[in-house]
Please model this.
Amino acid sequence: MQLDHSFTVPASPDDAWKLFHDLGRVAPCMPGAVLDTLDGDAFTGRVKVKVGAVQMSYRGAGTVTRDEPARSMLLDLSGSETRGAGTASATVTATLAADPAGTRVRVRTDLDITGRPAQFGRGIMTEVGDRIVQQFASRLEELLREAGAPGARSGTAASGTARSAVPAEPEAVDLGAAALPVLLRKAAGPAAAALVALVVLRMVTRRFRA
Model:
């Protein structure tokens, strides 16, 4: 499954590219992700997602390859559920280019996923990806603003084979909430009308009981 996203950050390509070299600072911007170890261009981490009341945690590893002249980086990622048989692997290519608003970041993801999240089709996965990328871009913008503030210092990134402190538990990304608008659009028509009628009926019933 191939997914394409893009976003703009208010920084020059040189400044944005410099930040993208620091995975220890960039990784926490990704919703649901925690970087556990960073050793050169290799790293390990965890991702937690939820669909409804069901939560899934993935533990995996990856490597990064950079093309300095093109300001492009390639991430090879693979992981598996800590409690389950689901797996996920992805090749992510991020390319930075000059933009009137700062820097345009284009992200192409080749994703292969098994298990419960695989039940979502490409349209829903694209919508979910859009929302996650928007959150990532917003956090990255905050990071860039902090980096440009007077007296700002580089974050305490993971280095060597492990961090000095125990990494925090990641906060689960709600894939169900992200996919809900798409599901409602697909259900437009009689199904949507039935859903609205059910909500109104519940409201009337609650008021009557009150």
Observations:
- The first strand starts at residue 2 and ends at 9.
- The CA atoms of residues 124 and 183 lie 8 Å apart.
